[in-house]
Amino acid sequence: MDVKTIAVMGAGTMGHGIAEVAALAGFNVFLRDINDQILSRAMDNIKWSLQKLHEKGQLREDPAQVLSRIRATVDLAEAVKEADFVIEAAFEDIDVKRQIFTEVDKHAPPHAILSTNTSSLPISEIAAFTSRPHAVIGMHFFNPPPLMKLVEIIMGNATSRETLGAALDLARRMGKEPVVVNKDVPGFIANRVFLRLSDSACLMVERGEASIEAIDSAARYSLGFPMGVFELLDFVGIDVMDFIARAMAARGVSRVPCKLIEDKVKAKELGLKSGRGFYSYP
Ligand code: CAA
C-alpha cells in the first residue's frame, strides 16, 4: 500500500506529536480536533519541537517546509477524505472513540486503514464501530512521539495480515521501531509491564521500605531507565496511569491498590502538567 496522506484525529499531546512525526517522514498530514484553539496550541507545540530538532541539526529540511505538510482542520470529513491511513489519538473514552470511528469510517476512502493510539481500550471493541474491522489496528506511540522510538502494533480479533503489514511499514517509514502485540490484551506490553513495576514501587514507599527518590535512583542508575518510576508517572500524568490501571483491572488484570496514587489524584497533583506530582515543577 502506497501511503501518501495521513489523517490524525486529535491534536493533544500525542496527536500533535504523531502529526509532527508523520510530516517529518514526508507524508501529507491532516490534523483534526474539535476547535481552533486546540489546533493553534498544537501547531505552536509542533513549531517548538521542530525548532529544537533544527537547532540540534536533526532536520534534513527547513522547519517551515515540514510544517507546510500539516493542515489543521476542525472538519472531520475534510481531514479523512484523502487519507490512506488514519491515526486516532483522541480522548480515552469509548464513546468518543465510537463517535470518531463511525464518522471516519463513513468519510475515509474504502482502502484507508484506521488505527488507534489508545493505551487502554480494546482494539476489537473500537473496530466494531466500523464496517471494516479487518482494516482496524492499534498503533500505540509513546510520549514524546518525536523522541520515543517504540510503537506497539496491536492486532484486533479481526485485523488482517495486510493491515498488519501496512502498519509495520508505516511505523518504519516514520522512523520508529514497531513491536507486534499478537493479541488484544489489556495494557499491551509497555503499560502492562510498567504497571507491575509502579505497583511494586508504590507499595515499597507506602510501607516505608524506601523513599521515592531512592527508588527513582535505582531505576535510573541500575535498571537503566531514562527516568525514575515516579518521575515517569509525573511525566505521563498520574491520572493517566491511574486510568490505564483501572481499564486493565476492568478487563481482568488484577491491581495492587496504591494509596499513594489515589491520594495524588484526589489532591489533583497530577504531575508535570499540574506543576506538582511526586515532585514539584516550578
Ligand atoms: N521535541 C523535540 N525536542 C524535545 C521534545 C520534543 N517533543 N521533548 C523534549 N525535547 C528536548 C528537550 O527540550 C531537551 O532539549 P535541550 O537539550 O535543548 O534542553 C532534549 O529534548 C532532551 O530532553 P531532556 O534533557 O529533558 O531529557 P532526556 O535527555 O532525558 O530526554 C526523554 C527526554 C526522551 C523524554 C527521556 O527522558 C525519556 O526517554 N523518558 C522516558 C519517556 C517515556 O518512557 N515515555 C513513555 C511514557 S508512556 C506513554 O507515553 C504511553 C502511555 O500509554 C501513557
TrEMBL record:
Localization per record: Peroxisome
3-hydroxyacyl-CoA dehydrogenase NAD binding domain sequence ranges: 5-184
Ranges for domain 3-hydroxyacyl-CoA dehydrogenase C-terminal: 187-281
Protein family (similarity comment): In the N-terminal section; belongs to the enoyl-CoA hydratase/isomerase family. Belongs to the enoyl-CoA hydratase/isomerase family.
Subunit structure comment from the entry: Monomer.
Protein name per the record: 3-hydroxyacyl-CoA dehydrogenase
Organism: Thermocladium modestius
